[in-house]
Amino acid sequence: MAKTKTKTSKKARRKESSPASLASVLQNIAKHDEHHTANIDSLISKASLLLQEHSDPDQALKVITAALSKNPTNLQALELAGEINIELQDIPTAIRCFTTATNLDPDGVASGAEKFLWLAQICEEGNEVAIMWYEKAVKVLRSKASQGDIDEEVKEKLCSALCGMAELYMTDLCMQPDAESRCETYITEALLVHPSSPEALSTLASFRISQSKPGDARAALSRSLEVWKDLEAGDGTIPPYPFRMSFTRLLMECGMYEETMDVLEGLQEEDDQVVDLWYLGGWCLFLIGDKLRKGEKAPTAGMSGEEEEEEDWRDTWAAAREWLWNCEKLYKAFEWDDEGIKEHASELLRNISAELGEAKPDDEKDEEEGEGGDWEDFEDEDGDEEMKDS
Asked: What are the start and end residues of each TPR repeat (predicted)?
């Protein structure tokens, strides 16, 4: 879900007013008479519309708070309030909303698995507590799936929950003695539920990489690409932008550089104001050029192998430099704080310049000496103060 940036003054006012009102509503749930509940469906619909269609979580919070003041035990309103607070980046209040909903519906019989899935992702304790929430969600979703024809939404949620558990056992819980077997079990079930799920196939690839099985990982990534790579732009079944960005890192890790650039170029057409996009594209083109330079790719027809190799790797590195320059511009413009990207991109640019010679972006060629063009210039703008680590 996209994060909405707000000015500091708005954020301060929100903390002073709306969350406090919502907190007082949540505190009074124990005193609420369940036999006297108001119909708040119209308010819930309005709040949902404000959040989903108008991207206005501040107004949505006001409406849902009004709804809960009339009927504080309404599960739909509580869960929507949780989602609104996630959008506002007020995670403690979101946790409180979802936890209140789970207390009212501990088995998910009334409102389903959504609240458990949210708590698995945002709970402060993480690890085993997150697994506990995932297991609750999976139990509800498995029950729904066993009742007959499983609809697409249930399939996707069950698959996502199983992949979430596998990811935890590949990362935070990787030292557990049964971590590997649990990953295998969860991913296998996810693929049985939804064989063409990009998320499940991506999780499988990540797992195979961790097992040092690059061939199997490449096969899983290729299966995922076959599902969505040729779909028309705007097709709802194309994985979201952040997923595809993470997916390119797996492709690169498996040496699938051409496929990486195909995905990145598609992302560029959708939104070219992303630092990671240009960084990954520049890095990938550098790696392609490096392979050509070392003669690891057969030349194409039309010229001698030596001429093709010489031209290709230099052209590819020149393109890599363009991508890295764009990364640099956005890094400065957004005052990005990922030190790892800055240092690695600087290293790549130095390596390219060592082979191709020094150069500057077209829009900086006429600037005076010392104005732009170097990562170090950005560091010095505010003195010698170090950039924060991401």
From this structure: 75-108
* Of 168, 174, 160, nearest in space to 113 by CA: 160
Enter the tokens of residue 44: 């819930």
What's the pLDDT at 163? 98
φ/ψ region of 181 (left if φ > 0, alpha if ψ in -120 to 50, else beta) reads: alpha
**Band of the pLDDT at 251, cuts 50, 70, 90?**
very high
The interaxial angle of helices 152-170 and 198-210, nearest 10 deg, is: 20
Angstrom CA distances, 78 to 59, 101, 103, 310, stand at 16, 6, 11, 63
* Rounded Cα gap, residues 371 and 363, in angstroms: 11
pLDDT band at 296 (very low <50, low <70, confident <90, very high): confident
Distance CA 83, CA 60 (A): 10
Amino acid occupying residue 102: T
Burial class (CB in 10 A: 0-12, 13-18, 19+), 99: middle
Q: How many residues does the chain have?
A: 390
What pLDDT score was predicted for residue 364? 66
Q: Distance between CA 242 and CA 2 in Å, rounded?
A: 10
- Cβ distance 75 to 105 under 8 Å? yes
The Cα-based distances of 44 to 41, 50, 92, 112, 279 in angstroms read 5, 10, 21, 17, 42
3-state DSSP helix/strand/coil % of the chain, to nearest 5? 70, 0, 30
- The tokens for 309 are 């190799």
Tokens standing for 238?
């194309």
Q: Which pLDDT tens digit goes with each residue over 31-72?
A: 555 544 567 999 999 999 999 999 999 999 999 999 999 999
Give the list of residues 6+ apart from residue 83 with CB closer than 8 angstroms, or none: 1, 51, 94, 118
- The DSSP symbol for 63 reads H
Mean pLDDT of the chain: 86
Q: How far is CA 191 from CA 14, 35, 166, 202, in A?
A: 43, 45, 12, 11
**What local confidence, expressed as pLDDT, does residue 39 receive?**
78
Q: Do residues 317 and 289 lie in contact, with contact meaning Cβ atoms separated by under 8 Å?
A: yes
pLDDT of residue 297: 56
